[in-house]
């Protein structure tokens, strides 16, 4: 036997490996909630509710749930929305009877028991399902020419970018209509000017910028204006932009009263 053969190591023995068992990982089912959504079409005698089960996560909003219904269950559901982050005011609805922006209302913050009821805003004509006609709301700003958007005076030297004629200054009000829907006076008196328009009037009076206040004060002194408000504070409670319409009405009412008092005194003299 050659030395090389003597040094040859024995062949390794093959050991049977245990079989690997493949386990299918099934993702945990998402929790679901039930929505009761108001449905309405032109010609219907009255609205009715349809129920939908939707999957939710910790950050799911009411608008997320409504859009999920449109995508997966009923594409005929009419819901108005735009920015998805509480700036445009177009997704205003009533959630469990309370006015709110659908995109700013998380499902997790709502009571767990019972279905989540979603209805259109009150005191406005319903076009279909959750979409209302905002024409009447905006019409309340028109008689005195109240500007929801006013020209900026922040920096005269600033040059607007291409395609923009001038900078605009946006008031806090996002014209969502929640305050008008929540107002108990607007529910019984369609001629009432409403908290949003009165808050805009108060802003103009506080900061006139050389504007003639005659039309604005004329609006404020009408019977269905500041004196028609009954201080329910519902408008301020539901406002998503901290406009505080109720306080604005108080301030405007005080200004109207003071102006009237000064006029009486001047006449007496």
Description:
With 269 residues, this protein is of the alpha+beta class. The chain has 9 helices and 9 strands. A hairpin with a 2-residue loop joins β3 and β4 (98-101).
Can you summarize this structure?
With 269 residues, the chain is of the alpha+beta class. It contains nine helices and nine strands.
Comma- or semicolon-separated keywords:
9 helices; Ubiquitin-like (UB roll); 14% strand; single chain; 9 strands; 269 residues; two-stranded antiparallel ribbon; Fumarate Reductase Iron-sulfur Protein, Chain B, domain 2; 5-stranded mixed beta sheet; elongated; alpha+beta; 2 domains; 29% helix
What is the topological layout?
Blueprint: H1 3-6, E1 32-39, E2 48-55, H2 62-72, E3 92-95, E4 98-101, E5 116-119, E6 126-128, E7 131-132, H3 135-139, E8 149-151, E9 168-170, H4 178-182, H5 184-188, H6 195-206, H7 214-220, H8 234-238, H9 245-268
Helix vs. strand class? alpha+beta
> Based on the structure given, which CATH architecture of the largest domain is correct?
Orthogonal Bundle
Low-confidence stretches: none
**Helical content band:** 25-40%
- The CATH homologous superfamily of the largest domain corresponds to Alpha-helical ferredoxin
Q: Estimate the strand proportion.
A: 5-15%
What's the CATH first level of the largest domain? Mainly Alpha
| Mean pLDDT score | 85
Number of domains: 2
Rg, nearest Å: 31 Å
């Amino acid at each position: 036997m050659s030395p090389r053969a003597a040094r040859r190591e024995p062949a390794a023995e093959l050991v049977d490996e245990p079989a690997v068992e493949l386990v299918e990982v099934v993702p945990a089912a998402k929790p679901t909630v039930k929505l009761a959504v108001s449905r309405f079409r032109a010609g219907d005698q009255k609205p009715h509710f349809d129920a939908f089960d939707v999957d939710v996560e910790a950050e799911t909003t009411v608008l997320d749930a409504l859009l999920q219904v449109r995508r997966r269950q009923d594409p005929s559901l009419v819901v108005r929305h735009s920015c998805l982050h509480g700036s445009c005011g177009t997704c205003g609805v009533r959630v469990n009877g309370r006015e709110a922006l659908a995109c700013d209302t998380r499902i997790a913050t709502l009571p767990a028991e019972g279905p989540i009821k979603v209805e259109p805003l009150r005191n406005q004509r319903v076009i279909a399902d959750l979409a209302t006609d905002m024409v009447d709301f905006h019409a309340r700003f028109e008689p005195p020419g109240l500007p929801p958007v006013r020209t900026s005076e922040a920096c005269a030297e600033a040059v607007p970018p291409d395609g923009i004629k001038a900078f605009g200054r946006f008031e806090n009000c996002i014209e969502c209509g929640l305050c008008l829907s929540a107002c108990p006076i607007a529910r019984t008196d369609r001629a009432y000017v409403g908290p949003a328009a009165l808050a805009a009037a108060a802003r103009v009076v506080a900061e006139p910028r050389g504007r003639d206040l005659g039309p604005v004060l004329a609006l404020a002194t009408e019977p269905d204006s500041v004196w028609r408000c009954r201080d329910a504070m519902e408008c301020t409670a539901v406002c998503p932009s901290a406009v505080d319409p109720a306080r604005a009405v108080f301030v405007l009412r005080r200004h109207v009263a003071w102006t009237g008092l000064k006029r009486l005194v001047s006449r007496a003299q």
